[in-house]
Amino acid sequence: MILVKDLTRIFEAGNQDVLAVDHVSFEVQPGEVYGLLGPNGAGKTTTLRMILGLLKPTSGDAEVEGFLVSSHPDEIKRRVGLVSTSAGLYQWLTPHEILSFFADVYGVHPLQAEERIEKLSRLFDITSFLDRRTATLSTGQKQRVNLARSLIHNPPVMLMDEPTRGLDVVGSKVIFDYIDLLREEGKAVIVCTHRLDEAEQLCDRFGLLYYGKKNYEGTLAELQQCTSCQTLTQIFLQLLDAPLEPAGILPTAQEELI
Q1: Which residues contact 63 (CB under 8 A, 6 or more apart)?
Q2: DSSP calls for 221-245
Q3: Is the CB of residue 207 less than 8 Å from the CB of residue 26?
Q4: Which of 8, 181, 189, 243 is the most exposed, having the fewest neighbouring CB atoms within 10 Å of its CB?
Q5: What distance in Å separates the CA atoms of residue 29 and residue 20, rounded to the nearest whole number?
C-alpha cells in the first residue's frame, strides 16, 4: 500500500521560489494501478522521487507498506521497484550480469537470485539475449531488461515514470502486459504519464496534476460524471481552460526543474 500525505516541494530558483508539488495526497491499494497524470512540468516525477526517498519533501510525508519515507528511507527502497526511461543500464554488462548485480544490491540470496533471473527471463522473453552485451540490444529489448530488473527483488510496490516513452507499438504492449501482471500479483502501482490514451487502458484510478496541484481524482466514470467529459484528454482540456496556476509560480522555471 502507498499513502501520500500532503507532499509539498519548493525549489529555489534564484530569487524566485518554485512550488513544484503543492500538498498532494492520495493512496494506492494492493492490486490497484493509479495513474498520476499531467502535462510536462506538472510535478509527476518530483512526486515519485519524494515517495522513493530520493528527494526530501519541503513538507508532508509518504508511507509504503507501513514505513514512512521521512524516517525509514532504506526500508522504502527495499519495497519499491522503479521503471523509468531514464534508468540507465550498464552498457558493457550482459542482462544476466545486470540482474545479478541488482539482486545482490537488494540482498537477494544468490540461489534465489538465479531462480528469479530464470523466471523473469522467461516472463519477459529475454533468454535469447541474456548473455549479450546490453549495448548491442534494441530499445525494446533494453526496456524488457529494465522491467526484469525492477522485479528482481519482488517488491510489493512499483513506480513507473513514462514507461512507454520511446517504444513502438510492440514495446508498448510489453508494458501493458507487465502492468496487468503487477495487478494480478497484488502490487500497488503508480504510473506517471502524459499519454492519456494509454492511461485510460492501464489505470484503475487517476489523479490529475496541474502546476503541482492535484485537481481531480477518481475512476474514469467518476471523472466523467464530475466534468461531463468522456475522455481523459477532454477532461484535461477542460482543466487547461481554467488554469489554477498559483501566484508567484513561473511555469518555464518549473518545467526546467521537474
Answers
A1: 1, 2, 3, 4, 5, 69
A2: HHHHHHH--SSHHHHHHHHHHS--P
A3: yes
A4: 243
A5: 25
> Which residues, including other chains, have CB under 8 Å from residue 138's CB and lie 6 or more apart?
none
Return the amino acid letter for 71: S
Torsion, Cα of 189, 84, 19, 40 (10° steps): -100
Q: Among 193, 197, 150, 187, which Cα is nearest to 32's?
A: 187
7: burial class by Cβ within 10 Å (0-12, 13-18, 19+)? buried
Residue written as cell 518555464?
Answer: 252
Distance CA 130, CA 120 (A): 11
Q: Is the dihedral of CA 56, 62, 64, 68 positive or negative?
A: positive
Give CA–CA dist 106/89, Å, rounded.
Answer: 16
**DSSP SS3 for 34:** strand
Q: What is the pTM of this model?
A: 0.86
For the chain, the domains span 2-79+156-257, 87-154
Model pLDDT for residues 217-232, shown as the tens digit of each residue = 999 999 888 888 898 8
Q: In the prediction, which pLDDT does 153 show?
A: 93
Query: 48: how many CB neighbours lie within 10 A of its CB?
Result: 21
Query: How would you classify the pairing of strands 205-210 and 33-37?
Result: parallel
Neighbours of 98 (CB within 10 A): 21
Check residue 64 and give its pLDDT: 95
The CATH number of 2-79+156-257 is 3.40.50.300
Q: What confidence tens digit (pLDDT) does each residue in 27-67 have?
A: 999 999 999 998 888 899 999 999 999 999 999 999 999 99
